Backbone:
């Protein structure tokens, strides 16, 4: 049912990063899985060992490298490296619109994968401080305006989300906001 709800609104074309000296490119995977028939999504808290966005909450993912065929391959590779989860391309149902980070020069391509159940995650790499498995609808309902960053960056209507005292802001919040808009068409928030 969830796939039927959001699938028509997702983009499905292949994405290759455009050559640009101004930006770096990354891809993330939004893994929607189910517990007791309720959708959950996996987020990670990044360690302080990473160069960019240390300590922030994000979707698993990372940098495009030359060996990647396209941005989807980047997302699939990164989820495997960070969490040991093997996503099959047929589990990826599409992607949302790319977002630009506010504090670094990244353009991030968010892909959406639907899987019934995630495998047990037994090992993560140095980039992941902790895994946060979140009930998707409750997370989307936590949306509020991010007044602090709206003022800091002079951008109106920036969203932020909260889960168990973890603040989700920036590019990850703007990706979640896209999901919230898809869901709000069918589910009353």
Residues:
């Amino acid at each position: 049912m969830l796939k039927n709800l959001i699938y028509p609104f997702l983009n499905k074309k292949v994405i290759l990063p455009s050559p640009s000296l101004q930006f770096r490119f990354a891809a993330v995977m939004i893994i929607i899985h189910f517990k007791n028939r309720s959708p959950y999504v996996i987020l990670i808290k990044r360690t302080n060992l990473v160069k960019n966005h240390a300590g922030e909450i994000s979707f698993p993912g990372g940098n495009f490298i030359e060996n990647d065929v396209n941005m989807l391959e980047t997302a699939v590779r990164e989820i495997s490296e960070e969490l040991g989860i093997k996503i099959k391309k047929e589990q990826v149902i599409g992607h949302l619109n790319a977002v630009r980070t506010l504090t670094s020069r990244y353009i991030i391509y968010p892909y959406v994968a639907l899987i019934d159940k995630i495998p047990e995650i037994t090992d993560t790499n140095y980039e992941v401080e902790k895994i946060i498995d979140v009930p998707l609808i409750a997370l989307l309902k936590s949306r509020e305006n991010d007044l602090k960053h709206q003022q800091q960056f002079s951008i109106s209507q920036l969203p932020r989300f909260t889960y168990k005292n973890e603040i989700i802001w920036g590019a990850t919040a703007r990706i979640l906001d896209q999901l919230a808009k898809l869901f709000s068409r069918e589910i009353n928030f």
In short: The first strand starts at residue 24 and ends at 35.
